[in-house]
Design goal:
Elements: E1 2-6, H1 10-23, E2 27-31, H2 34-43, E3 48-52, H3 60-69, E4 75-80, H4 84-96, E5 100-106, H5 111-127
Helix pairs in contact: 2-3
């Protein structure tokens, strides 16, 4: 399964990658800017996108809107250090764009929760129609 991590914090990117390594064998790419992540989405769309909502170059909501406009059909997990209300609002907005949101988690996400979300992404991948 291909996973794209988007977070402007290099420590958080490394932490998420380490957590994924513990969960199994994944093809993981990391991006520290929304613009870099959009380029990676266009090159090789991941099965799972784990996306921070607060970034300096573009906020997560705008990034998700652009991902939806680019017809991204993989699963999405939202991460944020913001309060739960912001996470829920972002989740609703992303779903309204047609994205498959699996969850919205506070940072740092617990390993057990990440494992549950990865399992959901694998199920989403198997149920998704092939292009």
């Amino acid at each position: 399964m291909r996973v794209l991590l988007l977070d402007d914090d290099s420590f958080m990117l490394a932490l998420l990658e380490d957590m994924l390594d513990e969960l199994g064998s994944f093809d993981v790419a990391g991006a520290s800017s929304a613009k870099a992540a959009l380029a990676l989405l266009a090159q090789a769309p991941p099965d799972l996108l784990i996306c921070d909502l607060s970034m300096p170059d573009m906020d997560g909501i705008e990034f998700l809107r652009l991902a939806a406009e680019a017809s991204y059909r993989g699963a999405v997990v939202l991460l944020s250090g913001m309060d739960a209300g912001v996470l829920r609002a972002a989740e609703r907005l992303a779903m309204a764009q047609g994205l498959a949101i699996l969850g919205a988690c506070s940072k740092p996400v617990a390993a057990t929760e990440l494992g549950r979300l990865v399992a959901l992404a694998a199920a989403h991948r198997q149920s998704a129609p092939t292009p």
